[in-house]
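dumping these here so i dont lose them again. two proteins, back to back, each one seq then structure tokens. dont judge the mess
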Amino acid sequence: MKHEISRRKFLGAIALTGATLPAALPRLWAADSPVPTAADAIPVIDAHIHLYDPSRPQGVPWPPQDNEKLYQPSLPSRYRPIAQPLGIVGAIEIECSNWLEDNQWVLDVSAKDDIMVGTVGHLEPGTPEFRPSLDRFRKNRLFCGIRYGLGRQSGKELDRPEFVSDLKALADADLVLDTANPSVALLADVVRVSELIPNLRIVIDHLPQLVPPTEPAARASYAASLKALRDRPQVYVKVSEVLRRVNGQIPTDLDFYRPRLDDILEVFGIDRVLYGSDWPNSDQWLPVPVAFKLVQDYFQGKGREAAEKYFWRNSVKCYKWVKRTSQQPQS
């Protein structure tokens, strides 16, 4: 039996998002979809959500105040009713603030809700503050690593010994480097980092959003990076932000996305792909259950073992997140 949630629970989750689905959505979710039994259900670890609270006295650096969809408190209490009907039993927060003390704020918020199994903070390698901050935050077991936007400086930071040394310290601490939004330059930098620090686990976020370039030089760089990354088991990729806008519309047919998903899986293999909802940023496309259903159908179509690796097993190896409830699997 395929792992699907009931239509009643799905519609309840949608109501909680405050969003309206397009008319095409009922075709995605049949009225007679069976409720999974305990034996059929695959638990899910969401490896990419964001936590912030614009109502704090100090506000937030992101999202901007004029973004009506995003500029509202995004906390575990709001996420949980969306996640649980989908079988999501744990989540990893990914930084969306460059304020140092927001690393502590997220850790404090996460500690109060056991659906949170880890956080990936914001620290800048190559700065005097990096090492003491890393030593401070790594003492908390929920701190899984940092996110840094490789590709922004055309690889210049990788020519700085202090930058590379700090990434080596991150690897020696058994922590992860998430790499922010994908680009051709970012992929090239991931290749360089993985060569310089082969024991550093690296996560490429949202790769489905990167459209393969057509300009010859960019295309050659893109192809060379993927060829190099094919055989680097320490580099993972999030099959997240799958949805795309085409002529102002967002397709909800899996066949539209299948070729891109096939390309990613062909390069990285089933042992290095991770699920992430990108909530609440994903609300700028469609509510979480829509994209979830697409990737659920895609990976379950490859068999239960493949689906388990994508939805939770690979995240254990990559993030070494903290098991906080009996529903959160780690073996």
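---- next one ----
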Amino acid sequence: MNRFAFFILLLGMGVGLIAQENAAGISFQQGEFQAMLDKAKAENKLIFMDVYTTWCGPCKMLDRNTFSDAQVGSKFNASFVNYKLDAEKGEGIAIARKYAVRAYPNMLFINGQGEVVHRVVGYRPPEELLKEGDAAAQKAATMKPLSWFDENYAAKKTDKSFMQAYATQLKIANKDNSKVLGEYLALLSPEEKVAEPAVKLAADNLSQLEGPAYELLAGIMRESSKHPRGVLQAAYSGLMQVKSSTFQKAVLNKDRKLLDKLIQVSKETDGPGAAAQIEQYELEFAKATGDLSMIRKSTEQKAETFMKYKKEELAKMDVEQYALFKRQALAEGVDTTAAQFKMMEDMMKNSASQGAAQELNNLAWSYVETMTDKADWTKALAWSARSLELDRDANYLDTYGNLLYKLGRKPEAIKIATEALEKANPEQREGFMETLDKMKKGTL
């Protein structure tokens, strides 16, 4: 099984979900979103809404490490109406679209009128989420309605503080703020533009691959050696999110021109990782448009690269990459006691092996989704088998089981699907159980 997603590894996002209640942590309410709005209004509280997907690794890390924390639970249960929303199911689809959720996890603090007061994108350890909660409460206490900004815009358009707040309020309301944001950036000196506060504002409010905010962030990435880590992280994050949303739009509309524009942006801003990113764009676009020849070409070239590495070679690469990671952290004075560093450290201990396993599984799953020929499925089965040699993950087992079934090897498929179900996380079980049931009935 695979879901195509963009993750910000450079920012320390990590790879269990979803308990409606954690014994010592946040207790999430159940029901429809309107009921949460009514409750928030009646109790004069903000809604804390965690918008997630079942395939999002950092979302699961939030559940495991942050939402289960006793201090976080005590604070959030007392201060907010806590609510979880699956962005790909039921009313979650429309609500995620309404609030312009483009990356996961996406945590929103919303008042009883349905206005977003504060937004947090990406994994946060407990101590940082507590700070975000305080920031949301402070904003709610001082927040002016958008109508006030509209009324005062003409008189205050040269006021940096006003224009900064206005751009943010427009984004929160899911309105086009590119004009106001551009006007704000034009008020800044060259030094102020590339300072972290302005770059973060541009990154948080970027909505398209053009305009002053985009040019600022793209310029920073093109000259990355001139800027400090915090500025680079903010620029990378903003560009990543808008590239993700642009790609989704290109796929949805089967818009080749938009994809070509995105590919050009990737060449300019993704550095050494551009080639791999462009390859992924091409593959996913080919899948969306049904271009089987392009899928075969792209997929099989990539699979060949990963299949050539033996398990022992990948284990050696794990050691080397982990050592390099430790040396770089030491040289840059990174806080090695921080929760995000510890999470990244765990990931880097077997990054080559895990990366190869994930890539091979993704490639195999793409053939499950798109191909109808047994010769294609046989090739994919070999890729899937190699992924299981590296990591017997529930998702990878699910892929292998699906391929076995397609190849007419039903008893083997059922055995593998049973193992996948046994290893599945709670949020995976329903889908895996359905797959197993269909295999047994011969209706998959």
